[in-house]
Amino acid sequence: MTVIEAPSRVDERFSHIRRLEAESIAIIREVAACFQRPVLLYSIGKDSSVLLHLAQKAFVPAPLWFPVLHVDTGWKFREMIAHRDSTAARLGFELLVHTNEEAARAGITPFTASSAVYNHAMKTEGLKQAMARWGFDAAIGGARRDEEKSRAKERIFSHRNPAQRWEPKTQRPEFWHAWNTRLAPGESMRVFPLSNWTERDVWDYIWIEGISLVPLYFAKPRLVIRRQDTWIMVDDDRMPLEAGESPEKRSVRFRSIGCYPYTGAIDSTAATLAEILLEMRSTRMSERHGRLIDHDQAGSMERKKQEGYF
Amino acid sequence: MRDTPHQMPEEESPDAIIARVIAAEQAKSQLRLLTCGSVDDGKSTLLGRTLYDADCVYEDQLARLFNESRGRVPEGDLDFALLLDGLMSEREQGITIDVAWRFFETDKRKFVVADCPGHEQYTRNMATGASQADAALLLIDARKGVLTQTRRHAHILALMGIRHVAVAVNKMDLVGFDRTAFERHAAEIADLAEALGFTDAVAIPVSALKGDNVLTRSAAMPWFDGPTIIEWLESVDVAAAVVRGPFRMPVQWVSRAGQDFRGYCGRIVRGRVRPGDELMVTRSGARAVVARIMPEYDLGQAVAGQSVTLVLDRDVDVSRGDVLAAADRPPVIADQFQAHLLSLGEAPMIPGRQYLMRLGTDEVPVSITALKHRIDIDTRAHLAARQLAMNELAVVNLAADRPVAFDPYAENRDMGGFVLVDRITHATVGAGMIDFALRRAGNIPWQAFDTAPDARAAAQGQRPAILWFTGLSGAGKSTIANIVDRKLMATGFHPFVLDGDNVRHGLNRDLGFTEADRVENIRRMAEVAKLMADAGLVVLVCAISPYARDRALAREIAGSHPFYEIFVDAPLTVAEARDPKGLYAKARAGKIANVPGIDVPYEAPEAPELRLTSHDAPAEALADRVLHLLQLGRTLKVTDN
């Protein structure tokens, strides 16, 4: 096991996390300076919360001067909506909420449509409608390059055509910090200030800056049912219960949050940020460890290496 | 087994543990690293091995690594390249991937890795990645040594200002960990490093497959006493260099919080700043003293890399595009400079054509005034060139519409690196690095004369204007312009027809009909038209002017003079049937080339002031429409007031 030593006298201003912070703030300011009608996309999750915090920091002592948009599917946890509204009231930004009412009226719900159909209608189309409704030309989002392979190559300023489509051929090479923010009429930009952050950076920053998170991330007894090997929270009475299903109270927390019927919880008693961070670090290690001993090949590779060279 | 169990404090709270863990994380600095070399050199294997050794592989990737390695590599080994795949299928779908980003960390540092796939766009991709990198890891195959490709990679690194380079001499296991082979390569690498000016270059013998000298020191190469790859990566010092040197902060945004607060927001790209420092505002030359830095850090000073808001002690005019700079060591301010330019767009870059330059936070139109020479990226040989195709590198002279503040790229990447943006498509078509100023602004000032343009116009009894007739050869431009000219004369105006063919007999007789020459032809005609308009004339320009960008440039050159783009639109069949100059016949016979509409395009104006379809109306009627456009001359009349 690694022994963690007390930090040496490394100047905090040069630290990894401060370099990321400074870069993100520069990106957010660039959006403010170069676009007519920018918006910050707020999904209420941890990445969004970091993004919002950075946007506040970018303009202090002035208030956040562009609006914050939540694309509400109508199926978010009630705690998310409460957190969203209290955050908006506390920080005093302009909160815009858009729901794809057409799809909702057409009866598209997590229980009646496939997840692909539901997500496309409520999230993708919902966002496009909102962009058009308010005429936004730049949307700041919290996506990161470490999330998945396809994100690893994404630009910081990602160009969209007038139909809001991502066209691989028109993505612009990005040199230094000389971002090309020019748009033709009808075109728009998606901007990702957290591109170079990893998931761990996000959690560390939440701790360092004391960023407030929606309580769903913290364990407490919640009413849940078991579905597809995970705990689904019965957040309201719209949740149809199948025969034999009876909700039970368990101490659980959520690792990511979204629409409650699609978001699984894990058993946990980690009720504070420190406890979550500890649990995450140890879980990852033991899972890794377990997998490694399953694969005797790994051991034999190490042995061969040793045998061959010693 | 340890003799004594590891001592843990007995009752340490989760908060105390996490505070300690994160404090350790915060003590880590960041290094942005570019990896270059082809798959054949084992680049993916080395990078995959590094991620694996640093314990930065996610669970699903790890499972795949174990399951899919079987049959791909000798029993017992792992195919670490599997950790980095996923690019190939996307490439097959035609998706351009210039850089794929990876993340890993060690106990001392966090790494952001720019991994560039090696294919036909390699120069552009590698340059893009290098522009974001502090250091580079270059791979060569121990069996092959320094190849042309190695020289190309090293050259691009040097060009992009990378000074810290580790060359991993990989596949040492396949040469029996032979010291002589390594030392032969290392000597060649040292020569290359010296020629290219790398301040910190090291050759490291490794076996990415077996892990030798990656994270752990190789037992098979005890003769090597240099750093392992990880040791080198952890020790490269890049922060110190940017903190030394004169203070620079391009202003991104002016913050106005309430009536009294003015703060200038930006990221410091060089040096450090404290309250009390005297700064210069580059565009006005005004000076002011720093009153406050936000956010407030320890020691009261901010350093390169930080995004801050500066409050100055007095009211000065500062806006986005200005640079706040150390008053005693200001940057260069000039409107003409030499630069290295890498072409990134599909269309060739041509001298005379105008682009939008993005330098720091400033945006200014520039044009290439001279293409001095192209540089062969493999051999570094200088070649003559009249235009610049995609992925080509050249030394050029650039002229900006107004002075800009910069430092040579070699001194400061953020103050000397710029991109060029196409004015029509808004694509990023070039990346450049400024070498030096050719002419400091102010050395050739505009000579001011007593007679103001208004007075000159009043004396002529008309307002000058430029009417730009564009269209295919034989569309009827000169015929219509001739009638307009006659009618204006008859009503007491002072027009003049500037005809493309006539100008080619004199001023432009050195120019041919290639795209590059057409750009210059139009630039000169536009400049002459502007001088004539300055003299008070109504100028009727007749020129095919097939490229939209060049007509846009002509409009820019016209400045404050009214500019009317008149599209004389005739189908090619009609123009070809007329063929007044016999051009089309010669082109069809293969005797001449570069005839717009035949073998080079004519880009029809999208939004001309006037479009005349010359094949279905008599020329007289079309000329009347031009006069109508000018409201029968009223826009040309000087009003009395």
From TrEMBL, chain A:
Q: Which InterPro entries match?
A: PAPS_reduct_dom, Rossmann-like_a/b/a_fold, SO4_adenylTrfase_ssu, Sulfate_adenylyltrnsfr_sub2
**EC number assigned by the record:** 2.7.7.4
Task: For the region Disordered, give the residue spans.
Answer: 288-310
Which GO biological process annotations does it have? sulfate assimilation
Keyword annotations: ATP-binding, Nucleotide-binding, Nucleotidyltransferase, Transferase
Q: Which family does it belong to?
A: Belongs to the PAPS reductase family. CysD subfamily.
- List the protein's name: Sulfate adenylyltransferase subunit 2
